[in-house]
Amino acid sequence: MTALLVAELALAEGRRAACELALDRVARTASDGIGDHASRTWMAAASRRVQLCLATRDIAGAAEWVNAMNRVLAEREFAPGRLALDIARGRLALARGDTTTARTIAVDARDKAHATHHQLAFIQSCLLEAAALRIANYHDEAARLATMAIERACDCQLPYEGAEARIERARALLASGDAVAAHEDLARAGAIFARLGATAGIREIESLTPRIRATRPAGVTAREIEVLRLVAQGLSDRQIADQLFISHRTVTTHVGNLLGKTQSANRTELAIWALRHDIVGSTDEGVMV
To answer: Which of 34, 134, 169, 206 is most buried, judging by how many CB atoms fall within 10 Å of its CB?
Structure first.
């Protein structure tokens, strides 16, 4: 497994120290290399550094890495590196509250990514523009851009990026008052993150889920709510049984009852139903935590 992949996994799992160590290793190795491949690798690591800094609100640190990326490109210009720098600059502008600059950069980067068939950069630029539009209160347009990112991620089989795009669309939908559609996106993103073990993404979803009192709709019992919460997290019946210290057969019975009570066709619809009714994350007493 390459150091860059290790860094990607650590970033997804919210393990900052491990991510930093892996990125340091990538940077050292790339600095010793020659040619475009080494430069691309270094730029990819620097781009992740910017994300890591912004995730912890270290604006100054992010700016330092953006400047370092700019210096590298001044010595060796190459298209993928320019796209990485542009997106990093846009993210930094957004973190500083400059939505106009962020959107301008995002539009330009998206056009370049489309022209060069750089799929990941296309998705990232769509999400950057969507975030800028959402913050500027253009919620419908933000949702449209996020949808473009979701569709491209699906076409390119990039589940993690697709889940990130669903979170961005959910933010726009929540801002426009469409909580039901937003909860559907969060449920789907949560299922993807659970499958990938991306705990950082799961925590982000939890932060967006309203902390309100669950009302146990459709006549579901307290135990069924416990099972439903774990189903929504993507756990299998066997995993739920182990976590709740009950038999596998009992879990299967509960899931069957839940499917009937909620009129859901499958576990995905169950997860969506749970989010619609603000049950995900509730305690036995029915309080969101």
So the answer is: 169
Residue with tokens 């669309």: 169
- The widest CA-to-CA distance across the chain, in whole angstroms, is 66
Residue 288 has pLDDT above 60, yes or no: no
User: Does residue 211 share a domain with residue 101?
Assistant: yes
Coil, helix or strand at residue 233: coil
What are the residues whose beta carbons fall under 8 Å from the beta carbon of 86, sequence distance 6 or more? Answer: 105, 108, 109, 112, 125
Q: Do residue 39 and residue 143 come from a single domain?
A: no
Tell whether 270 is covered by a domain.
yes
State the Cα–Cα distance between residues 61 and 70, nearest whole angstrom.
Answer: 14
Residue 19 located in a structural domain: yes
Within-domain flag for 113: yes
Are 103 and 179 members of one domain? yes
202-226 per-position pLDDT tens digit:
888 888 865 323 345 677 877 888 8
Pick the more confident residue, 36 or 198.
Answer: 198
Distances (CA, A) of 105 to 24, 89, 124, 126: 28, 8, 12, 11
Chain center to CA of 275: 17
Instruction: Specify the residue for token string 């650590």.
Output: 10
> Hey, is 236 helix, strand or coil?
coil
The letter for the amino acid at 28 is R
**How big is the chain by its Cα radius of gyration, in Å?**
21
- pLDDT greater at residue 287 or residue 175: 175
Question: Are 237 and 252 a contacting pair, CB within 8 Å?
Answer: yes
